Amino acid sequence: MARILVIEDDATICDLMIRVLSMAGHEVLGAFDGEDGLRQFQHNDVDLIITDWNMPRKDGGEVIREALRLDPSSRIILVTATPSTDLTPDAVQGVQKVFPKPFELQALLNGVGEVLEGKHSPGL
Length: 124
Known about the structure:
This protein is α/β, with parallel strands linked by helices. It is 38% helix and 19% strand. The model has no long low-confidence stretch (mean pLDDT 91).
């Protein structure tokens, strides 16, 4: 399957996403803040990034911009409790899917499959 990097500062949500994605057959790496997530991205061949928006040390916007700078073909899913009205199109440029929290795990799995297969609608 795919190697997925989950960047989420809420340990419970991070662990749950890692577990569910692993059970679906993916190899999953986890990071609890944007800085560690970007470090892992730079040292691992990653097929997909799933990142939170509000995190310590580097937020989701910084993660998205830096990942796309390092690899413009990066595939990114954003999960966030931030209202969509606060996320400008520029802020989520390069993001293939956005999931507002709370989200259903099956919806996330479906979205991961769509992004990995190239079937997605960009941005919000």
